[in-house]
Amino acid sequence: MQAQKPTYPIQMYDSTNDVFYIYLGSQYDAFADEEYPNIYVMRNDADNQIVGFKILDFKNNKSKFELQYPQYTEACEKILA
User: Fold this and answer.
1) Which residues pair with 61 in a beta bridge?
2) Residue 33 banded pLDDT, cuts 50, 70, 90
3) pTM of the predicted protein model
4) Residue 23 and residue 31 in contact, taking contact as beta carbons nearer than 8 Å
5) Which carries the bigger pLDDT value, residue 33 or residue 76?
6) What are the backbone dihedrals phi and psi of residue 35, each rounded to the nearest 5 degrees, phi first?
7) pLDDT digits (tens, 9 = 90+) for 43-68
């Protein structure tokens, strides 16, 4: 049996720790930088394209994320609604 490839985007919210993860593509060969306080942007090593986000303290940083990355705000709409 072959493993199924994930279907992107993937969105996961850890309500216990208030962390929101957005995966737009494979995290293989990716690096993360804290581009804004509590907002980590994951980029592909090869072409520097964004492949994901990790937003710490999401309840307090959701609006900051939406302001800085408006093209990805749809992913946040159902969280904390």
Assistant:
1) none
2) very high
3) 0.86
4) no
5) 33
6) -80, -25
7) 999 999 999 999 999 999 999 999 99
List the structure tokens of 74: 């749809």
Tokens of 78: 């159902």
Token code pair at residue 16: 């216990």
Q: How far is CA 1 from the centre of its chain?
A: 30
CB contact at 8 A, 68 and 49: no
Per DSSP, what are the bridge partners of residue 23?
Answer: 10, 52
Q: Where are the domains of the chain?
A: 10-71
Here the tokens at position 12 are 């996961």
Tokens 């309840």 belong to 59
Please state the separation of Cα 57 from the chain's center in Å.
13
pLDDT of residue 49: 93
Above 90 in pLDDT, residue 18? yes
Rounded to an integer, what distance in angstroms lies between the CA atom of residue 44 and that of residue 59? Answer: 27
